[in-house]
Amino acid sequence: MAFRAEYLWIDGTEPTAEIRSKTKILADGDEPGIWGYDGSSTNQATGDNSDVVLQPVRVVPDPIRGGDDIIVMCETALTRDLSPHPTNTRAAAREALETYADQKPLFGLEQEYTMLDVKTGWPAGFPEGGFPGPQGPYYCGVGALKIHGREVVEEHTTLCIEAGLKISGTNAEVMPGQWEFQIGPADTLEVADHLWIARYLLYRVGEKHDIEISLAAKPMKGDWNGAGMHTNFSTEAMRNEWDAIIAACDAMGEAGVPERHLAGYGIGIEDRLTGEHETQRFDQFSYGVSDRGASIRIPWQVEQDKKGYIEDRRPNANADPYVVTALLTNTICGALA
Ligand code: ADP
Ligand code: MN
Ligand code: MN
Ligand code: MN
User: Fold this and answer.
1) What CA–CA distance (Å, rounded) separates 100 from 83?
2) Average pLDDT, the chain
């Protein structure tokens, strides 16, 4: 019987790229091959030369449709010579992993997000035109006055598991209507592919519940937490020795490196990295054990064990995971090589 393949790709929307998708019907036994789309409608081409090529790079079962249906994650390429499209950020992540695969880099991405009520445009749990009580009871909270949107979270988690994504946990966040899921540990490319697919599944669940998922870094001004994409990272050496943990932190603080990383960590980074709400200021770099006010946190358990991983707390929720994982792989593996 024929089946459906949902092709996913990253568009050229400024300043934050988004996921796009369309459906292809395949005949029984067909492989999902190269396809294309109208790049003039995604800020990736002009109308007179509009075709952009889709190259399948990872296939998972489609847990929304079930049966034989699949999700096909793609890279975008130019028709001219099939080289990566300029907006194809996965290509650089692929190169970074090819260069440093011997160091066995692993990531865990903590994707925070905010659920917006499509009728009010306000975060779930915020009364229309008003504000809920101050932050405190919501993080990992339980109960109808504290928690909003849990059914979306549960449906999304089930879909991620059924798609075979490396989802490792979920939690309610500090601001009402804000949640998190984690993907990892997985390598430079797999973690970012899985994160983009997980974002797609989350948006789809949101459609069903009239909830728009926002990855805005600071959706509510004032005394409300922003949304990040904390990036946990290790190499084989870091998983074995303390010296490599410290060398990795030092490499991240070298002259010019923090600025270069922040440029790839998403839009609105100055609004979120204020030095308040569990962040370090965007114009300062620091690392420390258990320090949620540092740029990079060394988890308590890692200091106990004298090995493990580090957490870069700076990437925004709206960051492109391909850009973030390529930066960390190149900077830290380059220094440890
Ligand atoms: P936090 O305490 O900051 O909220 P989380 O539990 O939300 O941390 O996320 C930690 C993430 O780090 C998880 O996705 C986990 O799989 C990942 N992780 C665990 N060990 C490693 C490792 N050695 N290298 C990279 N990532 C790791
Ligand atoms: Mn977390
Ligand atoms: Mn969090
Ligand atoms: Mn964290």
Assistant:
1) 22
2) 97
Q: Is the CB of 234 under 6 A from ligand 1?
A: yes
**Mean per-residue pLDDT, 101-120:** 97
Ligand nearest to the CA of 139: 3
pTM over 0.85: yes
| pLDDT for the residue numbered 129 | 85
- Domains along the chain? 2-86 (3.10.20.70), 97-336 (3.30.590.10)
Distance between first and last Cα of the chain: 51
Ligand 1 atom closest to the CA of 239, numbered from 1: 23
Measured between alpha carbons, how far is residue 82 from residues 73, 75, 79, 135, 207 in Å?
A: 17, 10, 5, 50, 34
**Cα 310 from Cα 288, distance rounded (Å):** 10
Query: How far apart are the C-alpha atoms of 260 and 243, rounded to whole Å?
Result: 24
- Using pLDDT thresholds of 50, 70 and 90, give the confidence band for residue 128: confident
Residues 6 or more apart from 22 whose CB is under 8 A from it?
6, 7, 37
